[in-house]
Amino acid sequence: MAARADYDLIVVGGGHAGVEAALVGSRLGCRTLVLTSRPSKVGVMPCNPSIGGPAKSHLVREIDALGGEMARAIDDTFIHIRRLNTGKGQAVQALRAQADRPLYNERLYRALLEAPGLEVRAETVVALLWEGKRIVGVRTHSGLELRGGAVVLCTGTFLAGVLHLGPLTLPGGRAGEGPAFGLSDSLRALGLELGRLKTGTCPRLHRETVDFKGLDVLPSSSEPLKFSDLTSEDRVRHRPGVSCYITRTNEATRRAVMENLDRSPLYDGSGSITGTGPRYCPSLEDKFVRFPERQVHLVFLEPEGMEAKEIYLQGVSTSMPLDVQYAMVRSLPGLERAEIIRPGYAVEYDYVLPTQLDFSLGVRHWEGLYLAGQINGTSGYEEAAAQGLIAGLNAARWLDGKEPFVLGREQGYTGVLIDDLVCKGTSEPYRMHTSRAEYRLLLREDNADDRLTPLAREMGLISEERWAIYEGLREESQREIKRLTSCHLTGELAQKLSEAIEERVAPGPSLAELLHRPQISLALLRRCEGLEPLPCRVVEKVEATIRYGGYIERQEREVRRAAKLENVRLPQDLEYREVVGLAGEAVEKLSRLRPHNVGQASRIPGLSPADINALLIHLRKRSLQF
Amino acid sequence: MYPSQLDTIVALATPPGLGGVAIVRLSGMEALPIAQALSGRQHPWEPRHLYYSPIRDAQGQILDRALVVYMAAPHSYTGEEVAEIHCHGGMVVAQLVIDLCLERGARLATPGEFTYRAYLAGKIDLAEAESILSLIEARSKGAVYLAAQNLGGGLARQLGGLKDSILEIVAQLEAQLDYGEELESLDPLWLKERVTLLGREIASLWQEAEEGRLVVEGLETVLVGPPNAGKSTLWNKLLGQERALVTPYAGTTRDQLQEYLYLEGLALHLIDTAGLRESSDPVESLGIAKTREALERASLVLVVLDGSQELSSDMSELLSDLSQKPQLKLLVVLNKRDCGVLLSPSDLQERFGLTHVCQTALKWDQGLEGVKRAIVELGRSGREVSDGALSLSQRQRQTLLGVRQAWDSLVKGVQAEAPWDCLLLDLHQALRSLNELTGQDVSNEILERVFSKFCLGK
């Protein structure tokens, strides 16, 4: 007999994915429970204390546009922020911020505590409960059975986690915290295939033992930069920023690593680490081994908070024994007397091969089970948070009997992320890069709200306040674009501009055409016109729309071409063996991955255009028969 | 990315290598405008009327006087707007015409695409569509085989090199975009220089492809035989001109000669080889190695023997080797009938299971017509292999065209100082064009390159 569910939504894990999943559940009126071994560690940043960077800050903007928490949380707590990639193109411009680690953690914990209908309990989940093909709840280490309408698993590195530090190997999900055993067996019992991944973290140093003199300084920006449109510029304008510093490895560092390779769990030949590590976040051991001709690698010193005593040593991810870590650290200029507060370590954990998910992030063939974050093979707080939001949203929509919310690759990096995971899978921790997005010019930071906020409003994810801000921005930028395209350059204004850029500007063209010249910004133009400056967000939108016009149109044409195939649905019960003309490899892959439409099928590695034609003909035959 | 159903597609509609008329078929919205542009006829076209019209290239030069017909949607094979150009100049002209269509925005049809469109429009039934599809599947396997063979040489290798160079630029830029903080900044001049340099390379590749457009076009035909049996004489007689050096001494033809020959509409890519015998002269043995290579690739082999002498053990071995190859068409020419007959056609036919053996006295022009007839007969039987080669070479040209167009746009972007994210749009487009042949995933390849080249990630 089915017991009444205690909760609508049970979220397992309180990391970046878990927090977004739980909050979106609460926003949509679900009775939501968060289960985490240590509630005080909700939203903690176990690796570097920073958020953003190319493609990652794009994800944060999308989370914000969908009503998520991450952008506002980092805006409230950053102590350092910079704009990256200026001058390389507006589509790849990105923010990166350093959080005050303890404050960020506290900020998210508070958000959970204040969210209506949301409860946090200190429990470690050891098993899933199911009836038939439906997940109905979880069992915890204390023997508690909790029933919920849907379960979202956001286990991070805790799923059968093992920590490595030199010769030491101990079970754990994070330094000082135990792993989650048992849950992997539940997942296998559901018929899911699991893999093993590895990631690493860097040593933390005592601030007062570091000599910052002589190091390169990376100052925080003086502009009022922020991720969320809900954050006012005043809130960030006078934030006292701290600087980051850069030091460099040298021959002594290389020797410290290379002479002790036999003591690294990665290279000691013991094979104690079997999980695959990320190429884009290599350990210092990997860097010296893979690039033997390079001595100099950059190392970033990142303060962990205004008050915090810890400095995060970005770039020195390592699992060497402590004495070797000391030798490595102290070979670096400025760190000759540095003390390590917490050594770097590697962690291995289980993940579920994400090709077993559907595009809602629900597990195929089961009802009521959703996965988000590192359990899906990704890496990074931002990637996790974006998935958490989508998984929580779709779990809540499923409980409501609504269609899942699936984002296309042309709609957001979030869509690219999930499409890549589900169609292609991953064998190393997956990190988002701007080069993964084929419609990169459409997926800019400046238009994340244009792409997603109207959808978020329809689903009830955002407040009236946010909607009003969105509409205000949109109207103001459209008004300005209209003005720029209809006004033409007068002789007087041309004269002023010529003086400003010390280059002749001829009167006649529209003001919009003028903006195509790299030297002429909207701010400069308005200054010469004697007009008030526009808000930053409006300026970004206007400049991108005008300057990228031709390129944007090209990408939109590509999207329309691709849409033809995206719109052809593939029935989930299709017997691919019966499709005439389909190659053997294609039959195997399609039967396993079961894409929802022909567009997704066309992205599966190994399928040829001839396979797709065969598929289209078969579908046509079916539609004629039924 | 899979090609769109909205595109106008073009392909050869008649089997290649056969007959005097080749039909180029266009299907899609642009079919009529393209036919109009090529023929220069702008007035209203009556559907299903044949118009006799010169076909001109972009420079206005007349390529052929062809018959052009327009079929209005939905009354056509595919149910779409269709135009057909019936070329009289045979295969070569047909390919030029297809190239013109590509330049005017049509896309080469993928295997089965006309069929697919016809099926969607309800013009053919499922059984027909499926049988055509399975044929296409078999053929594309043949094409893959040919592509693998082709890797050893020519355009394919150069396209591979080009892709590598483009990937290099893309990796540099992508690394800058995703990991700019950790890298030395990139000198904008470097980019400009690379783009210019590669632009030149692409232009010269295009030129080469244009000039070498016939290389894989005809039926690959190899002349082989012992020294001084009369290969070069046959060559000259077939081509009607003095091309090979003919002397009475054995081992004269050291390098390979190649030419194109059209016999009753059948295109042959004719290769004359060095005499097949072991040699101590390094130059000559090089020629012999080439001969063996040519034999591996050949579709038709003409074995020229001196019929006035006994069959040597070498030649006997060669004949039994060649006659074992199932796809190979084999013609034996017993020359020097005027000097006596020691080898009889019926003997050879029996011993090696041959279908075509001719006797000649080439010196006196005797038996030449018989040889030509036999070539045409053999050449017309079965055509799958040359079909695959044809579509492959054409796809390579389409690839190159795609790269060239992306590069033109890239150069404009560089001149206008467009930001990198925009320039990458063209660079990715060029890579995608290059990958259309193999269907590899571009984004993955780029990341592979970025991470193998740079030590990135904090």
Tell me about this structure.
The complex is a heterodimer of chains A (626) and B (458). Chain A is α+β, with helices and mostly antiparallel strands. In chain A, 37% of the residues lie in helices and 17% in strands. Chain A folds into 4 domains: 7-198 and 349-458, 3-Layer(bba) Sandwich (FAD/NAD(P)-binding domain); 204-347, Beta Barrel (Elongation Factor Tu (Ef-tu), domain 3); 487-553, no CATH class; 568-624, Orthogonal Bundle (DNA polymerase, domain 1). The two termini of chain B are 33 Å apart. With 458 residues, chain B is α/β, with parallel strands linked by helices. Chain B has helices at 31-39, 91-103, 113-120, 126-150, 154-179, 188-211, 231-239, 282-297, 313-324, 345-352, 368-380, 384-415, 420-435, 442-453, and strands at residues 9-12, 22-27, 50-56, 62-71, 82-87, 107-108, 219-224, 257-263, 266-272, 300-306, 329-335, 356-359. Classes of the chains: A alpha+beta (626), B alpha/beta (458). Chains A and B meet through helix 18, helix 20 and helix 21 of A and helix 3, helix 4, helix 5, helix 13 and helix 14 of B.
Break the fold down into its secondary structure elements and pairings.
The complex is a heterodimer of chains A (626) and B (458).
Chain A: E1 7-12, H1 16-27, E2 32-36, E3 50-52, H2 56-65, H3 70-77, E4 78-84, E5 94-99, H4 101-114, E6 118-122, E7 125-131, E8 134-140, E9 145-153, E10 162-165, E11 168-171, H5 183-189, E12 194-200, E13 204-206, E14 216-218, H6 233-237, E15 244-248, H7 251-258, H8 284-290, E16 298-303, E17 310-314, H9 322-330, E18 340-342, E19 346-352, E20 369-371, H10 381-399, H11 413-424, H12 448-458, H13 464-486, H14 491-501, H15 511-514, H16 522-529, H17 536-547, H18 549-566, H19 584-593, H20 598-602, H21 609-625
Parallel strand pairs in A: 1-2, 1-9, 2-6, 9-20
Antiparallel strand pairs in A: 3-5, 4-5, 7-8, 8-9, 10-11, 10-19, 12-19, 13-17, 13-18, 14-15, 15-16, 16-17
Helix pairs in contact in A: 1-10, 2-10, 2-12, 3-4, 7-9, 13-17, 14-16
Chain B: E1 9-12, E2 22-27, H1 31-39, E3 50-56, E4 62-71, E5 82-87, H2 91-103, E6 107-108, H3 113-120, H4 126-150, H5 154-179, H6 188-211, E7 219-224, H7 231-239, E8 257-263, E9 266-272, H8 282-297, E10 300-306, H9 313-324, E11 329-335, H10 345-352, E12 356-359, H11 368-380, H12 384-415, H13 420-435, H14 442-453
Parallel strand pairs in B: 1-6, 7-9, 7-10, 10-11, 11-12
Antiparallel strand pairs in B: 1-2, 2-5, 3-4, 4-5, 8-9
Helix pairs in contact in B: 2-12, 3-4, 4-12, 5-6, 5-13, 5-14, 6-12, 12-13
